[in-house]
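I'll show a typical protein example:
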Amino acid sequence: MPDSLIAQTAFTAIDFESAGTAPGKTDAPIQIGTTTWSIEKGISDLWESYISTEEDITWAAQKVHGITRDDLQDAPKLALLWPQIKQRLKNHIVVAHGHGTEKRFLRGFPGHGFGPWVDTLVLSRRFYPQLPSHALGAICDHFELSQQVKELVPLKTWHDALFDAAASVVLLQHMIKEHKLEDRMVAHLF
């Protein structure tokens, strides 16, 4: 896929929200969101789910994303979501803003084979080094993209997995268009 044209490629952004880390505990995903985009089809297949976990949600994490134990009441375990995740990421370039967390949680599925990854944080630093912040919300606000994200996922906001996945795709779309990269190879984004 890195040797295909951007104009002929499907990208799927993924974002996880987590329970946060507590001393002696491991972090666990509690929400996932994905959004697909291609030049040909536009933005499509917005999907989200809460994820069941035995880990407690830390106060600090809850303060950031607002997800509580009540939200996870009937949520499936991550392993049960695997077929849906695989379906959405298969044969797509995977996108995330600061992909460390997303890669770490997907490593729970050995041999998943997804990638290569486009990191919109890395791209934004490359294309806009002068910006004072490369946080997803700050960049979307700077380029007046936040309203577009809000229209895609109404009633949601920053640090919701679906909202952040949609924002990553909207930002990627903006950078590709602004820098006229449509006819470049996907590898140009790495």
